[in-house]
């Protein structure tokens, strides 16, 4: 039997994650049946579960994949840029991402086993945000009267609020100035100095 290349395996895994993201976003965790996952990915259950042990492992991998993508944006451009991308619809699969994010929130509230498994994977965004803020603090761009951990929690709460707002179908067209205010809230003010993205 010919050996399958790593590129082929990676491509297949990406195909499963992208199809599953749409399925979970549309139907929720319980509604994303194996049959629906097969339809969304275009693959058989054998192919799907060759890459992922079970549906929960697939969902956790998907949520982790989204968290890693967000953490990459945070590391380079800041957490407010993640929010701006959501408003602009520039993030990859924005509607499906929102659905997955809401499903993660619901399961964290109702499923202790999921909460324990997710806790192991959910730190990427917090770590990326804190590290970015620490770099901004060292550069003198952050206010110094509030601890970096408090600023990190503040920005994550704003992100969660924005996600909830958009997921409820409320308009986001006029929220750009709100995000400007969020950035100004955590920035150190120096007369005449231009601000830096947080």
UniProtKB/TrEMBL annotation:
Residues in HTH tetR-type domain copies: 10-70
GO molecular function terms attached to this record: DNA-binding transcription factor activity; transcription cis-regulatory region binding
Pfam families per record: TetR_C_6, TetR_N
Keywords, comma-separated and alphabetical: DNA-binding, Repressor, Transcription, Transcription regulation
Protein known as: TetR/AcrR family transcriptional regulator
Annotated DNA-binding residue span(s): 33-52
NAD keyword on record: no
Membrane-spanning ranges: none
